[in-house]
Amino acid sequence: MKRSILGICLLLTIFLTSCRYTDFLHEFIRENAVSGNGISGSSITGASVTGAATTGQAVESTKAAIDGKGESDFSASQGAVRTDIVSGSGVSVSEDVDARMLTAEYWIGKTYAKDQILQDHKKIQSANQNRMDALHEDTDSGYADFYSSESEMTGSRLHVLMAREFLLKGTYYQDKRAVSQSDIKAYIENCAIDRLSDFNSIRFAVICEQTDVRELPTKDRLSVSVDDSSDLLWTTTISVNEPVLVLATSRDEKWFFIMSDRTAGWVPVSTLAFCRDKEEWNSYQTISDFLIVTGQRAVIGGEQWEFPLSKETVLQMGTRLPLASEKEIAGAQKSYGSRTPVWNNYWIRYPVRREDGSLSYEILPVPMDENVHCGYLELTRSQILQQAMRWQGHFMGQGENAAGTMVGCIMDCFGVRMPVKNSAWQKLASTDKDLVKDVPDASNVSVTNQLVPGMIALYDQAPAIYLGVDSQKKYVLCIQNHIVVVKTLK
Questions:
Q1: Within 10 A of 337 (CB to CB), how many other CB atoms are there?
Q2: How far apart are CA 182 and CA 250, in angstroms?
Q3: For 101-180, where are the alpha helices, taking DSSP H only?
Q4: Do the bridges between strand 456-459 and strand 436-438 make them parallel or antiparallel, or are there none, so unpaired?
Q5: Is residue 7 over pLDDT 90?
Q6: With contact defined as beta carbons under 8 Å apart, do 381 and 104 qualify?
Q7: What is the distance between the alpha carbons of residues 137 and 159, in angstroms, rounded to a whole number?
Q8: Does residue 31 register a pLDDT over 80?
Q9: Which carries the bigger pLDDT value, residue 198 or residue 95?
């Protein structure tokens, strides 16, 4: 009789295991971790995107007993790629990835405390300031300078920000041909560093056209090899309505050297407009009623509309757009005449550049769809995963800061301001430990156990979004071969 019972138990165990009973155990552990049954969940509510390490470690350690841990090295190697036929459609996925993993809902379903608010906006603002304080000595970020009360910047400081003499030491390519040293020197000379004074006036402006920030004042693309499709001179893409400091003008007067709270670089003159004074400029950082672009991109306007909507405009995720007042909306409706989009639209104050370079506004309609949200999203793990998965499959082939740009756009939806350059991310790994985790080796269980869904993991020294565990493997959303993909930590 005892042998029969043992045999039935063994068969039942095998059956449940084949049905992914381990996933049930994971969810059971997560529920108990949050409810306080055996593992304290109270510390999850602290000022951290990831939840406190104590709870995360306890849960992940218990999961480790069920799953086991990966033994392979953590690197950016591509691994095998296969093409699966999923629901009648051809989908190319990385090794160990299947169609279920390509939806945010799949990973959200595996996430404990998925809808718990991790930080309110007050705590987010405080964390932003702490992050800036930690990075104020980073010469590339410009954090200290951006929020300084100074009206001038020294020539020596500007020289540090603008100098790109290191480019003279390498060989670079454009359209598969080698770029001459004379061409590189011409790019650098266009920076007009020799025109800098001991003290240089700071002008205050707002971005009125989404544009790329460049290392040098040129649209020419440089790469490090003939077959390299990246752009060495691309720093990041800056959103419409971002306040910036204008610090210098190129020799050909076609470019401004600007600083945002993320980075510094060159943008075309036509892409920004000057504020009347610093008070107007400061108002852009205290907007209370606004839309946030929550889609990977949002498109407004098109040829069916009159100017200025007649040109289709693409806005990247995280773009913040001030909402118009009732008085402004009433006036705009009259000006649009028979084409007035009265119903099912938000109305925004969209920045435009006057002929003299000064700042003005147009009151424009934006459709009420899934690509925009009124105000910041609530900072929860489920929302972070939703925003992250909107990027999958998109091309991000500009340069080495592509991952920082993507993660920055994701976190902008919550009001969380993050840096762009990899050097700044490395510093955050040591100072912002609850938010950013450096994972140089996936076989280091003590490190990987601290990862929780929605956390920013440094993937080969670049940021990625940690998604969760499936079949003993950990997964991230990252950039690989210039494409945003779901893949395992290897």
A1: 8
A2: 18
A3: 104-108, 121-135, 143-146, 155-162
A4: parallel
A5: no
A6: no
A7: 16
A8: no
A9: 198
Q: Under a CB-based contact definition with an 8 Å cutoff, are residues 206 and 244 in contact?
A: yes
* Side chain identity at residue 130, one-letter code: N
H or E stretch covering 336:
helix 326-336
Whole-number Å distance between alpha carbons of 400 and 234: 8
pLDDT digits (tens, 9 = 90+) for 93-115: 778 888 889 999 999 999 989 99
Q: How far apart are CA 263 and CA 255, in angstroms?
A: 16
Distance CA 439, CA 69 (A): 14
CA distance 211 to 330: 31
Q: Is the peptide bond before 453 cis (omega within 30 degrees of 0)?
A: no
Q: What is the pLDDT of residue 138?
A: 58
**Winning range, highest mean pLDDT, from 34-43, 63-72, 325-334, 338-347:** 325-334
For residues 81 and 458, the model is more confident at 458
* pLDDT digits 0-9 by tens, 257-315: 999 988 899 999 999 999 999 989 988 778 889 999 999 999 887 766 665 566 788 99
Among 471, 485, 478, smallest CA distance to 456 is for: 478
Query: Cα–Cα distances in Å, from 84 out to 93, 99, 467, 469, 476?
Result: 7, 9, 21, 21, 20
Q: How many Cα atoms occupy the beta-carbon half-sphere of 447 within 13 Å? A: 16
Q: What whole-number distance in Å separates Cα of residue 382 and Cα of residue 374?
A: 18
H/E stretch holding 348 reads strand 345-353
Angle at 427 between CA 45 and CA 158, to 5 degrees: 125
Which residue type does 318 have?
A: G
Tell the burial category of 44 from Cβ atoms under 10 Å away from its Cβ (0-12, 13-18, 19+).
Answer: buried
